[in-house]
Write a structure and sequence with these properties.
This protein is mainly α and about 280 residues long. It is about 75% helix and about 5% strand. The protein has one domain. The longest helix is centred in the N-terminal third of the chain and has 35 residues.
């Protein structure tokens, strides 16, 4: 009985330490942006927080790096978006509100979503990384060379696809499928680099949600439904993918055709175009 009590106390203490360290990380990232107006310290903190990746024998480093790419993408995106809010030209109060909300979301990621290992949670983790990764990439890369943007899209696609596929047992072609999805996303990213529409958020005028981020997450949803159907039934059943495809096609038409017409009719279109 004493041993059980000791184990429980240690377990509770470890949970408390885990929560405190993760909250401290999010607050340190917030402080590094708010008080230094530089992303360098924040990015270093994100990378240092992954020290356990290299706390094993070198032959495991590459596998660990791949397994932690999703968390790194979310962490780096958090730092860059904090920086965007801090430089949005809003009042100090408005910037702090936006940065505070973003910090709460990142704490939620660290404490509630990232630690989960069930398949549904891993798919959700990949979805979050895909959306925020693409959103952040296109928010900051409008003056970058197209090759870097395409490479970034490939990396995001590879990391999120690998994370999702790793939740399925016995997948022999995990790396091939993940790299293939990365190539598909990179090709879409190349098209989006030249012209895309973005929607501003209310708490930061230069923090935007590009259409490509919405389209990428919808296409990933259809791809996941198709793979899941094939995994369980050795074929892609039409009943499993028909409604997702109809939904995605409908939303794509609205985003690419009707919504731009509505926006351009009511306001200056150039304020929404972040690529040319």
């Amino acid at each position: 009985m004493e041993l059980l009590k000791l184990v429980r106390r240690r377990s509770f203490l470890s949970e408390v330490i885990y929560v405190c360290l993760n909250v401290a990380l999010a607050l340190l990232l917030l402080a590094s942006i708010a008080f230094t107006q530089s992303i360098v310290i924040g990015l270093i903190l994100v990378l240092v927080s992954k020290w356990r990746v290299f706390a094993v024998r070198p032959r495991f480093w590459f596998a660990n790096v791949q397994a932690n790419l999703v968390d790194v993408i979310v962490g780096v995106s958090f730092v860059l978006n904090l920086y965007a809010i801090d430089n949005a030209g809003l009042s100090t109060k408005g910037a702090w509100i936006g940065m505070g909300l973003l910090t709460l979301l990142y704490i939620g990621w660290l404490l509630f979503l990232k630690p989960r290992s069930k398949r549904a949670y891993m798919v959700a983790q990949a979805g979050v990384a895909l959306f925020v990764g693409v959103m952040t990439l296109y928010s900051v890369s409008y003056e970058w060379p197209v090759s870097i943007v395409v490479l970034g899209m490939w990396l995001i696609g590879f990391a999120t696809a690998r994370h999702t596929l790793s939740s399925y047992d016995g997948e022999d072609y995990l790396l091939l499928l993940a790299m293939s999805w990365g190539v598909a996303l990179a090709e879409i990213g190349w098209l989006a680099y030249h012209w895309t529409i973005a929607y501003t958020l209310p708490f930061a005028s230069n923090l935007v949600v590009p259409q490509i981020a919405i389209l990428a997450i919808m296409l990933a949803f259809v791809a996941h439904r198709a793979y899941d159907s094939f995994y369980h039934h050795q074929k892609i059943r039409s009943g499993d993918v028909l409604m997702p495809i109809i939904f995605v096609v409908s939303m794509t038409i609205v985003l690419l055709v009707f919504l731009p017409l509505i926006l351009c009719h009511s306001i200056d279109c150039t304020s929404f175009i972040i690529g040319s």
